[in-house]
Target: Trehalose synthase
Amino acid sequence: MLLIEYVHQASVPPATDTAGRCTMARTMHAPSLPDRTIDAYTDVTGPDRLERLGSLADTLADDRILHINSTATGGGVAELLRSIVPLCNDLEIDTDWLVMDADDDFFEVTKAMHNALQGNSLPLTEAMKAIYRAVNEENAIELEDEDAYDLVVIHDPQPLGMLEHFEETMPEAAIVWRCHIDLTDPAPEYLAFVSEYTARVDHAIFSRSSYVGETAVPETSIIYPSIDPVTEKNRSLDAEAVADVSDRLDPLSFEDPLVTQISRFDPWKDQFGTLEAYRRASEDVSDLQLALVGGMAGDDPEGLELYEQVAEEATADPNVHVLTDLPDTGVNVLQRESDVVVQKSLREGFGLVVSEALWKRTPVVGSNVGGIPLQIVDGETGYLVDPDDAIGAGERVVDLLEDDGRRAKFGENAREHVRKQFLLPRQLVELLDVLADELDHGQ
Model:
């Protein structure tokens, strides 16, 4: 088994008073951003969409916009913001991105919230609520200027607790909540707690209409997430780059059949189910390899523990390779060189790794949950299976591995499907439309 180790550095909890309030200042930080220009997208999107972006940019030229989330690395939200924010600034829309400063106690609470909102909960205690409110308050204090921003986009539940402070310090600012998670079966007490905040935002954006459910929100929009085709993870690669990654991943071989799953080490991603599917497929496909590839999100305290469990489960099989924190080029190469990609999630807010693989003409076998069926056209770009059907997933992998023509046809279909539906310019048009409406700039 090829195993790349991850070194975890625990954060140091801040001092607190007897009420659980922080007694040391927190400072949100602005992540470093890559350069982005709208001209880089002329080959992947139509002129009408680019023209619309230009028009929206003119409309928003006098506004300041802030995005807030809980981590700069390791998750889909951070990846989206790393592309959206610099591209907005290239369009001359004054846009900032700030990441919360928080400790392990806070992330334990918000991970419990995340799990509960997706259907798996522990009791929500008053102590948990106190930690959540205290850390949000300390972060929000930094933004005291009532004229600082015209609109704030809060991503997911972690920063929602800042809302109360914003209502006092920026009473004229529009507040948009962008929910990236699956809320089809939330634990009622957690949904009620979150709804105390969401009921007071101006607008909420979800990834699927079914996610809105009983969430208290005044107005909603549905916007599918997207991938950025010009990033290091998704751009075209030359043979030299592929060969370099191949050398570094030895003994994993691109000459033998390869199935890959790329996702955070998170119980909802079901790496153990993927192992079971691989074992079923191995009965029919000789020399089959499996790469389980994942990153560690900064706001997910469960990641390291699950990574170690997966690595232990896989250690006896030399054809299973557990990889973590690969550079984006390495992920790009694996998605291109794999014969099939699997996304065996039990719940999934959207799962952009599916579109990443499809964009690279690699068919995907994925669970029929969350945003995955929006991306996989069953029988055309890949296959959908029930989330608890690991054996069925393995059989679908075999169907693709044993038919080169089908795999190639699915790959071409997949590329075109993503081009039309899941590339960044489309998402950005829809997002800016919502923001313009909330700022009373509707066109």
Q: What stands out?
A: Confidence is low (pLDDT under 50) at residues 4-23. The domain at 239-421 is CATH 3.40.50.2000 (Rossmann fold). The chain has two domains: 38-226+423-438, 239-421. The chain has 15 helices and twelve strands.
